[in-house]
Amino acid sequence: MIEEMETTDEFLARHSADVEEAVRKAAAAEIMPRFRQLAEHEVDQKSGPHDLVTDADRLAERHLTEALGALLPGSVVVGEEAVHANPASYEAIRGDAPVWIIDPVDGTRQFVHGDDGFCTLVALARHGIVLASWTYAAARDQLATAVRGQGAFLDGERLFAGPPTPGRDLRVATSHPDYTTDAEKRALLGLWTDGVAPRECGSAGLEYLAVARGESDATAFSWEAAWDHAAGLLLVEEAGGAHLTRTGEPFRITGGNTLPFTAARDAATARRVAGLLASAV
């Protein structure tokens, strides 16, 4: 436990390893025992057949909410499942208190189908600024971390995204058509052009990690839910990347963004993708 007057910077200096341990413990206790072992009654639909939730999501979020709240007294939690139950709780992102932003199982569809392409996402933010993030792919035993101004790391090794390979088509992960409006579909059509190779995305958190590692060049996403984006956006930034909406402004986790938006491995690629998204509207 820490004193309430401790700043978030001081907290991160002292307790980043404790957050990492909490994330690993939540996954070990609630997620991995259910991986490829889910019973039918442990899987539900939220808004439709593509929007799934499992007991692993609910219980891991509860585990993290208790553990992280205890680590940082005075903080609040915005978790995907809690917001589904009480949408008003999302407003805490815009408040004054430090806020933990949690997606207990990002890539629930993959998790349900027994695919290892899922992860747990945790970010710590204040006043709309993401200060630190943890991306844990438990089935792959990979942990990516970032602290604002201190770099991005995967399993302790520094990440540098670097520019795309000259002359090669840009590899861009895009929103699934089932989750886009007609206007967003038109914007995304701007990527279907020479020099770009768009594809449907998997877990948002792992797509951001692929950009930070330089394995993918950019994302083009059409939704705002902070639990999907906060951790990954900081990871990309700290690896040398950038993010822009199609009107050329950085994405804000507090909302009000012009969608779709992109996160890319360097600023030039972000401008290029944002321009293509804007050109098709």
UniProtKB/TrEMBL annotation:
<dbReference type="Pfam" id="PF00459">
    <property type="entry name" value="Inositol_P"/>
</dbReference>
<protein>
    <recommendedName>
        <fullName>inositol-phosphate phosphatase</fullName>
        <ecNumber>3.1.3.25</ecNumber>
    </recommendedName>
</protein>
<dbReference type="GO" id="GO:0006020">
    <property type="term" value="P:inositol metabolic process"/>
</dbReference>
<dbReference type="InterPro" id="IPR000760">
    <property type="entry name" value="Inositol_monophosphatase-like"/>
</dbReference>
<dbReference type="GO" id="GO:0008934">
    <property type="term" value="F:inositol monophosphate 1-phosphatase activity"/>
</dbReference>
<feature type="binding site">
    <location>
        <position position="103"/>
    </location>
    <ligand>
        <name>Mg(2+)</name>
    </ligand>
</feature>
<keyword id="KW-0460">Magnesium</keyword>
<keyword id="KW-0378">Hydrolase</keyword>
<dbReference type="GO" id="GO:0046872">
    <property type="term" value="F:metal ion binding"/>
</dbReference>
<dbReference type="GO" id="GO:0046854">
    <property type="term" value="P:phosphatidylinositol phosphate biosynthetic process"/>
</dbReference>
<keyword id="KW-0479">Metal-binding</keyword>
<dbReference type="GO" id="GO:0007165">
    <property type="term" value="P:signal transduction"/>
</dbReference>
<feature type="binding site">
    <location>
        <position position="80"/>
    </location>
    <ligand>
        <name>Mg(2+)</name>
    </ligand>
</feature>
<dbReference type="InterPro" id="IPR020583">
    <property type="entry name" value="Inositol_monoP_metal-BS"/>
</dbReference>
<feature type="binding site">
    <location>
        <position position="228"/>
    </location>
    <ligand>
        <name>Mg(2+)</name>
    </ligand>
</feature>
<feature type="binding site">
    <location>
        <position position="106"/>
    </location>
    <ligand>
        <name>Mg(2+)</name>
    </ligand>
</feature>
<dbReference type="InterPro" id="IPR020550">
    <property type="entry name" value="Inositol_monophosphatase_CS"/>
</dbReference>
